[in-house]
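Standup notes, protein team

Yesterday: finished cleaning the Schizopora paradoxa set.
Today: F-box domain-containing protein structure.
Blockers: none.

Input for F-box domain-containing protein:
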Amino acid sequence: MRNFLLSLGTKVATLDLFMIHPLRYEWGVPFSLLFDTSGHSEEHQFPAPTLYKAQLRLNLLRTFLPFLRNIVDLELAVSNRLEASISVRQLLELLALFQNTLEVFTLTNSGTEFYDGELVTTITATHPDSRESLEAPTTAANRVQFPRLSRLKIVSFSECIVHDILFTINCPLIYHLSLAFRTCKCFGQAAPDYVSATMLHRSVPELRSIEIQFDTQLRLTQFNVDLSARHDAFGWLLPKLSSIDMGSGVKRTRHWMDGTPPPLKNLTKLVSSRLGFDTNNIHSLRLHTNIELLPEDVNTLRLLVPEFVK
């Protein structure tokens, strides 16, 4: 790949979009080599790259560094085939090379292997029982700065990885967040520090749009409850929020004796309670879940939400 880019470097530098789709099974390079930017003096042979959008595998990031200097929209696919694990901070510090241009970032886990019930990935998280200080990453000095980032999407990772990313970045302009994660096996241990409406308010308080996928109905319900009332410490959580796209991976359980899942509650309260206060009204609400809404709730939501889709 490196030789290919060197031979066509000038042409690649003039592209607008470059895509390399991840392979399902692929051995990559040690992540430590990604930080070795020596040998990239050839970037001076190319004109200023015009590449604004790229979809790459993580292990190819170093190879493409000369062409990503002006990248605006970057999608990275992380497999479980790199030879060494990487931390969230290592990854974000590498991405900080593009912090002055990056506006949209998507991180997907293309791995499919499980160990002890957890999806295997090369990115490692700091679990609550090993965190020296839960508050330390939130200080300005410790956060990795992304001053232009406005849209962030993280898909198919464990909850602790999502948590670490959100508590390590500083992106004051972010307005759209998309999350889909599995509850980590450490959930509820050591400290109740997990992805919630309160945690998001502390990390990205300017959000106007959110897509979030939980793997249990309980988590989805609690998220709705937290957004439905004013909090003593923070006031209204995510006050600029106007678009919500939510779901849960809830499956049929033996507790549904009549074959009908329990109703998804608190949605109407979420929407109605944020009317007329120091919050934006909810203008768009989309649901992706097996849980049913009561007919009266559906009718109420259709009256209150201009764009309600179930």
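Follow-up from PR in the comments: The two ends are 44 Å apart (CA to CA).
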